[in-house]
Recover the amino acids of this structure.
């Protein structure tokens, strides 16, 4: 079994969030705007007792910004004529 959880942060360059103790098999399924806030929906496996967990750190970048080489792209959205890119860092 699995569930989808919603996390919100400020929408802007350099904004981001860290989701602590999330199952390692979790994945970002959507990056969008809800009520004017950056929103990330994450699919998480139902947690069996021995499921490994990790912190998931996500960062928002504008188009044309420097992005760390090891960052992994997790989504892009357009909102009010700006484009935002979500990376796992």
């Amino acid at each position: 079994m699995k569930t989808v959880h919603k996390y919100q942060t400020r929408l802007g360059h350099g904004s981001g969030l860290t989701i602590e103790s999330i199952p390692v098999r979790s994945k970002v399924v959507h990056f969008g705007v809800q009520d004017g806030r950056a929103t990330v929906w994450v699919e998480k496996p139902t947690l069996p007792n021995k499921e490994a967990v990790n912190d998931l750190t996500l960062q928002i970048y504008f188009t044309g910004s420097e992005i760390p080489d090891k960052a992994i792209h997790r989504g892009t959205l357009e909102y009010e004529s700006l484009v935002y890119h979500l990376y796992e860092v």
In short: The mean pLDDT is 92. The CA atoms of residues 13 and 34 lie 17 Å apart. The chain has no helices and seven strands.
